């Protein structure tokens, strides 16, 4: 999950750039789904969420040429905060200190 603060006067162009970034990520192996959203109460707050088969698939996607060209410049604008989450499924221990699989 990546959040972005975008001034109103940049929203139209940012939306186009963010969709291009989302599509570049979606074209990579291991991508399961992704969506763009805009906050209802604070329209300058945007989000890009994506789900991947594994952490490794996501990291490999970031190193591809098209993602570096179309997504990385947009992702660079993200709010500086942790962006990787794991599903909190019933019965699953959270924040497991063991190493995660890179896929």
UniProtKB/TrEMBL annotation:
<dbReference type="GO" id="GO:0004497">
    <property type="term" value="F:monooxygenase activity"/>
</dbReference>
<feature type="domain" description="ABM">
    <location>
        <begin position="1"/>
        <end position="87"/>
    </location>
</feature>
<dbReference type="Pfam" id="PF03992">
    <property type="entry name" value="ABM"/>
</dbReference>
<keyword id="KW-0560">Oxidoreductase</keyword>
<keyword id="KW-0503">Monooxygenase</keyword>
<protein>
    <submittedName>
        <fullName>Antibiotic biosynthesis monooxygenase family protein</fullName>
    </submittedName>
</protein>
<dbReference type="InterPro" id="IPR007138">
    <property type="entry name" value="ABM_dom"/>
</dbReference>
<dbReference type="InterPro" id="IPR011008">
    <property type="entry name" value="Dimeric_a/b-barrel"/>
</dbReference>
């Amino acid at each position: 999950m990546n959040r972005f603060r975008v001034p109103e006067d940049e929203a139209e162009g940012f939306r186009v750039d963010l969709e291009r970034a989302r599509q570049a990520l979606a074209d990579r192996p291991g991508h399961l789904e992704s969506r763009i959203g805009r906050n209802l109460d604070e329209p300058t707050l945007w989000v890009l969420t994506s789900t991947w088969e594994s952490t490794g698939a996501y990291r490999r996607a970031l190193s591809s040429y098209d993602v570096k060209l179309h997504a990385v410049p947009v992702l660079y604008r993200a709010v500086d905060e942790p962006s990787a989450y794991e599903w909190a499924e019933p019965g699953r221990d959270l924040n497991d200190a063991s190493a995660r699989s890179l896929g």
